Amino acid sequence: MKHLSHAQPNFESYSQVQPTSQASSENSSKLRVVSSREPQAALPTDRASHDSVSFLRALGRHLALRFRRLCFDEQWFVAVRRRMDGPDAFDLKDFYVLKPPRDRFYADPFVAERGERSYLFFEELVFAERKGVISCIEFNEQGFIGSPSVVLEAEHHLSYPFLFEWEGQTYMLPESRDSGRIELFRAVDFPLRWEFAGCLLEDVWAVDATIFEREGRFWMFAGGVKKNGKINSELFLYYADSPLGPWLPHAHNPVVVDASRARPAGQVFIHEGLLIRPGQDCSQSYGGAIVLNRIDLLSPKEYEETPVRTLRPEWFPAGKGTHTLNHSEHYQTADARILIFHPKLIARKLWWSFCSHLLKQKA
User: Looking at domain 78-345, what is its CATH homologous superfamily?
Assistant: First the structure.
């Protein structure tokens, strides 16, 4: 993508003589040239006028924000491309975009390959329902094939369908924070049918659990964990001898406390010999960007990482956020957030706001 550079105007310091039309040659000698270097008497300030302008500007910003919240909605979409290595590995371009209908969004993509066939798993959320399900669509080098199909649904919200293989089986670890557990599912008829395979942790309200293996030991990152915890700024770490558990907490949880990189943003991977953990930059807004963190020290009692690169949402025109990056052997996938005009949601949003106001008054 090309970025336009803006030319900077040249400002010059100069002196001006401003004679009035009534000035004559007799009093022209009384005119004094005012130099920009000479001290000048301060002009009287109209405080009331200044306050009025500040108020109108603040009101304008407030009304613009309210209008955007009422008439626009954030819509995430997912995209996939051929995997690149070397210096182009994180130059996010040339993606096939899976555009959702206006009444929903697609987010948190993970890619899986089976022989000659490739599949994209992701969260699908209908705005009116406010509850995510896990959907899947097949794709190839030319683009997507058919329409997405729902492959996993629960009474609670599901998202972030983390995929991994172990002992010949394919597993999915979707975010199920509202259940208060980290739940594992196993494919019985890939990619359409999944069965419950166990609970990895109880009494946790974690987001975006991510498992990886390192030197014979399994590790799991998760954001938040505590009920009503800081899901965007606290990262917890667990370890086990098997991905099925039992899982033990790291000695220094939370191992990262930083809204600019803590929350997981995809699978841990090796790039040019370095172990990289993608994290979300939520310092300004949820899912604002992806930060690639180099894992420097990893043990049951120690953990250190260093941010090395940030992937911003500008890879897609009008992008407002990006918060998931994953890959398979041949493909790479990411998501991004844009704003869409959605007037049909105005009445519903006003109703939600009214109900929320009533609940606050009762409390």
Answer: Glycosyl hydrolase domain; family 43 (2.115.10.20)
Rounded Cα distance between 314 and 335, Å, is 12
Q: Show the tokens assigned to 144.
A: 């997507």
Global pTM reads 0.78
Residue 3 CB neighbours (<10 A): 5
Rg of the chain in Å (alpha carbons): 28
Lowest mean pLDDT, pick from 63-67, 162-166, 335-339: 63-67
> Which pair of structure tokens corresponds to residue 46?
């109209």
The pairs formed by 97-106 with CB atoms below 8 angstroms and a separation of 24 or more are 97/316, 98/122, 98/137, 98/144, 98/148, 100/75, 100/76, 100/124, 102/75, 102/340, 102/342, 103/127, 103/128, 105/74, 105/75, 105/76, 105/77, 106/76, 106/77, 106/78, 106/135, 106/148, 106/335
Q: Measure the CA–CA gap between 92 and 110, rounded to whole angstroms.
A: 16
Strand order in the sheet with 181-189: 159-166, 169-175, 181-189, 193-202
276, 270 Cβ separation under 8 angstroms: yes
The neighbour count for residue 179, using CB atoms within 10 Å, is: 17
Strand partners, 150: 135
Tokens found for residue 334: 């990411």
pLDDT (tens digit per residue) in 227-274: 888 999 999 999 999 999 999 999 999 999 999 999 999 999 999 999
Q: Is 351 exposed, middle or buried (0-12, 13-18, 19+ CB in 10 A)?
A: exposed
- Give the separation between CA 294 and CA 275, rounded to whole angstroms: 6
pLDDT tens figures, 179-197: 999 999 999 999 999 999 9
The dihedral over CA atoms of 197, 203, 209, 215, expressed in degrees to the nearest 10, equals -80
Q: Dihedral of the CA atoms 90, 91, 93, 95 (nearest 10)? A: -10
Q: Residue 32 pLDDT more than 60?
A: no
